[in-house]
Amino acid sequence: MAQADIDALARPLTLPCGVVLKNRLAKAPMTESLADARTNHPNERVNHVYRRWAKGGLGLIVTGNIAIDRANMEAARNIAIEKQDEKYMAFYKEYAKAAKADGCVAVVQLSHAGRQTPRAVNTRPKAPSNVKLSMDGVPQFILSNPVAMTTADVHDVRDRFISASVFCQKAGFDGVQIHAAHGYLISQFLNPGVNVGRTDGYGGSLENRMRLLKEVVEGVREACGPRFVVSVKLNSSDFQKSGATEQDSIRVLEMLEASTCDFVEVSGGSYEAPAMVGIVRRESTRKREAYFLDFAAEARKTVKRMPLMITGGFRTRSAMADAIRAGEADIIGMARPLCLHPEFSTVLLSDPSPTLAFPVPKIDWHHLRATNPNVGNVESFWHTGQIQRMADGMDPDEEGKVVKPEFFAQVWAPRQMLWEPATTFPTNVVWALVWPVKPLHHLLQWFTVAAAVAGAGVFIASRVN
């Protein structure tokens, strides 16, 4: 049976645009915080990680989220592409070359964080409305206060997605993925609990709420041509009472299929309801390996031609192969396993063992839940730390021995939301110098905690005055 599973995953896939994936295994997008802290452009650290992933046997790479607006990024050290960035094209060509090594298809995920933009990046990010983010275990004063977008703002965002796609095509990437999931800006437009009070053509009915996504996808297709991969990351559900439902998402999928979208990566949740990291309530979802296969099976009743990529929760090769054979998934997305073993795709396609085990960190995350209710995001930060290690030429620390997970709970997460050392001189230089040096982690931890506490004190004092 192992060989049959290998054969199912090794089978090539031709996307609607004609681009061929050499197999069904994909690297799903993750936050990386690898960009140059001064310019938010890629560098050799980025190239090193992507070259390693591409040579690890993947058929498809979807990059970590790349912002279309530096003022509305998910993290201060992420990559951002803006209209005036043509002079940095050489950096992106090297990035594309690294991600396409060994015949891998490389697709750039483009995003706008909207109200999920951290305060360290922008205290007043743009969003469909002024409904503020709410996260368990995170004080409200740490989160940004969103500003409702005008219709002109919406059109500007649409045009930025399109121009960034053209930029990526010139750099040599095979396509783009429009991030419309996980509570990012386009997902916020789709969510009736966040997209409130709008009276223009982008609020109210589902047809209006999905208008921005439709205009972006069709605009990218028109600008980049029929052979360029245009994909979307979409929530199966927002997993919130006031959010977009599964039936809403199926209607969006129908629209995307009609708009000649090449594939949709199915995910779910947001910062407020993090289903994408496995925090789900439905019993049927818990019983199955992948978090969103139930939705995919339902969507297949109406979405027949457009390929679906399912990411999240796969832990055995047999489950992945079963999903392919059943037609529930056409592409299998992997994220965290590739943070621990970047060459794991090669193992999946060659190891004859019928009990092949997926890499999981040897860390007791349940213990951490007792001290940090937002442990789902702590896990994300810890896995980002493993990407950082690979960027510096090291292997992942799968047992958490070099840097304890508590570091990411107590230091990385707070500095990401409150005080980002990468953004200003001289702290960006200190962070860049200290991070790769293992013995200095504890010193940096206390330095960062002290600075974060001091920053919080100054902020609170200013509010009181």
From TrEMBL:
Q: Which UniProt keywords apply?
A: Flavoprotein, Membrane, Oxidoreductase, Transmembrane, Transmembrane helix
Q: Does the keyword Lyase belong to this entry? A: no
Give a single Pfam family match.
Oxidored_FMN
Specify whether Transmembrane is a keyword of the entry. Answer: yes
Q: Which Gene3D superfamilies does this one have?
A: Aldolase class I
Its transmembrane ranges are 443-461
GO molecular function terms attached to this record: FMN binding; oxidoreductase activity
- The UniProt record lists the NADH:flavin oxidoreductase/NADH oxidase N-terminal domain at 11-345
Q: Name the protein family.
A: Belongs to the NADH:flavin oxidoreductase/NADH oxidase family.
**Protein name from the UniProt record:** FMN-linked oxidoreductase
Source organism: Gonapodya prolifera (strain JEL478) (Monoblepharis prolifera)
